[in-house]
Design brief:
With about 270 residues, the chain is an alpha/beta fold. It has helices spanning about 1-40, 60-70, 85-90, 105-110, 160-175, 185-195, 205-210, 240-255, 255-265; strands at about 45-55, 75-80, 100, 120-125, 130-135, 155, 180-185, 200-205, 215-220, 230-235. Keywords: Metal-binding, Signal. This is Molybdate-binding protein.
């Protein structure tokens, strides 16, 4: 009887220990699983990302916007393309936007001086000037100096716009004086004048000449190397959709984004 009682007690203790060990193991496993799922879940992006970007970025940023929407279902990228100086003024004036991509550090400084960015802007590409002529280049424009020929209708970007400031810098470096038939508010406006044959030539960016295809003919000139523009990008301080905006900037700066920009003719930062 005593032996049976002792054996029963020992069995009960063993069963209890086994049960306790099993409970402990299950709890630990459950905890690990929970922690694992918690760390692997990232917040789902949604809503609209509003990007103010230099006109010369239109084609490449539009493509990147579509890629962003594909990668993040439920998001939409809205763009406002134009002259960087005008965009900067809109932002400091209170226009709602998430991201600003400018065609020069000077125009970005208009925004940073007002402390309207969240952190320091980062240069993501560079761009160089090129002469755009009507197809076939009937006026035989072969250099920057050729743009000063009498009777040649030349269009420049306004000097307050990065492409206009860069063109003026190249002209000054060459000691050339040029009076254009018009100053345009952004680089696409200058290019359009040539595409419509309302002008014989315009000083624009290499990327714009490439984007225009056979609508214009490009003429490179060595002085453009003295006026290469850095393009900075920044998250804006009062961004309505900051998380999605950060993700868009990350895409622009990624290898995938840089490939799209390089294929458009932009130079690496």
């Amino acid at each position: 009887m005593l032996w049976l009682a002792g054996a029963g007690a020992a069995a009960a203790l063993a069963l209890s220990a086994c049960s306790s060990s099993s409970d402990s193991t299950d709890t630990s496993h459950s905890s690990d699983s929970s922690a694992s799922s918690g760390t692997s879940t990232s917040p789902k992006l949604s809503g609209t990302v509003t990007v103010f970007a230099a006109a010369s970025l239109k084609e490449s940023f539009t493509a990147l916007g579509k890629e962003f929407e594909k990668q993040h279902p439920g998001t939409k990228v809205g763009f406002n393309f134009g002259g960087s100086d005008t965009l900067a003024a809109n932002i400091t004036g209170g226009a709602p936007a998430d991201v600003f991509a400018a065609a020069s550090p000077k125009t970005m400084a208009v925004v940073t001086d007002e402390k309207d960015t969240a952190g320091a802007p980062v240069t993501f590409v560079r761009n160089q000037l090129e002469i755009a002529t009507v197809p076939g280049n009937p006026h035989k424009v072969a250099s920057l100096k050729d743009l000063t020929k009498a009777g040649l209708k030349v269009v420049l970007c306004d000097r307050t716009v990065p492409c206009g400031a860069a063109a003026q810098k190249a002209l000054d470096a060459s000691g050339l004086k040029l009076t254009p038939v018009s100053y345009e508010q952004d680089v696409k406006g200058a290019l359009t004048k040539v595409e419509l044959k309302e002008a014989d030539a315009a000083v624009v960016y290499k990327t714009d000449v490439r984007a225009a295809g056979d609508k214009v003919e490009g003429v490179e000139f060595p002085e453009s190397a003295r006026a290469v523009n850095d393009y900075p990008i920044a998250l804006l301080k009062n961004a309505p959709n900051a998380e999605a905006a950060k993700a868009f900037i990350a895409l622009v700066r990624s290898a995938e984004g840089q490939k799209v920009l390089s294929e458009a003719g932009f130079l690496k930062p």
